[in-house]
Structures are given as structure tokens and as C-alpha cells.
Amino acid sequence: MIVLASASPRRKALLGDLVKEFSVLPADIDETPYRLEQPEEYVLRMARQKAEATIRMNGLAVRDVVIASDTSVVLGETILGKPAGRNEAHAMLRSLSGAVHRVMTSLCVCDGGLNRVVTRNVVTEVEFREISDLEIEQYWATGEPADKAGAYAIQGVGGVFVRHISGSFSAVVGLPIYELSQLLSEFGVSALKENVRE
Question: In the chain, at which end, N or C, are there fewer CB atoms within 10 A of the end residue's CB?
Fold first, then answer.
């Protein structure tokens, strides 16, 4: 059994492009960064802890393959999580306006017994154009920024702010397809075989 340790509809859709059948068993963990924790350390820790929590809560078998991921928008060394409300979303988008930031998306793929655990961190640079306060207000009114890291969705209306990206588009959406397919192959799962029409 393949298990996605995430409730994200975006990750579910992206994984569905790679494998036909999988279970969604999200983990509820404390996502507060540690004091002085570096962004890369944080996203890798989050992915691993999500995988571990899902295994612990569901009593998974060694033969099961668990996929967990975490995405953080990073400006300088500051992690921009999901905004708590309108004001925080406004502040995040104002800080991203006209600037280059990094999107870090970590992966943790492991067996259900945690005998084999492999992690990766995929970093993509994203450049925003200048955004006006009116545009920020209009964007907030779409409802899209409310549950997104950094208060935007590159695959949605928020894409209008993106001047350039260098790296993985799917990672910014929430699941780096190339890296995940490589890791899954190490666990005996081939995306190409999974998608052969019968």
C-alpha cells in the first residue's frame, strides 16, 4: 500500500499523476519551527515527523510505502507559513513584492517500519513582480491566499504575480514530481508502470 501523509488536495492530485492507487492518511503534528532552526532543517524535519506520525497513528506494515512532504516559502532566512488572517497575508505579499524568494519542498519516503527513510529538499527560486496594495486586497478577496504558504498559490490566480521561476513548478505547488518519482523507484514503485493502460 502507498500512503500519502497529507490532507493537501494539491499533493493528492500530483501524486495521482504518478500512481493509480494510494491511501490518504494525514498526520496532525505541531508545525512550529524550533528557535534558530534553519528553513532547510525545518522542512526536512516536518516531512519526517509527518511520516512518523502517520505510521504511528495507523499501525502501518513494513511493506507499506509512506510519502510525506512539507512546503515553506522562505524570504531571506524567514519562513512564511500560512497566514493567520488578512493582515498577515497582506504583510507577506507586501514583503514578496518585487523580490526573489525560495520555495522549499521536502520529501520523506519510507517504509511502514521506518527501516528505510529517504529525504530530499527541493529548492525553487521564485521572482515576484511589484504588487500594489489594491492588487493584494483583490487577491485576498479571492479566498486563495488563506491556506497557502506565503499567502499565494502559483497554480492559481497567484500565478499572475510570478515573473520567473528557477526550479520545479510542481514542488512550488506542493510535491516535486521528478524527485518523488526517483525516490519511489528506490522503493520498487515505477510511475510509468503504474500508468500503463490495461
Answer: C
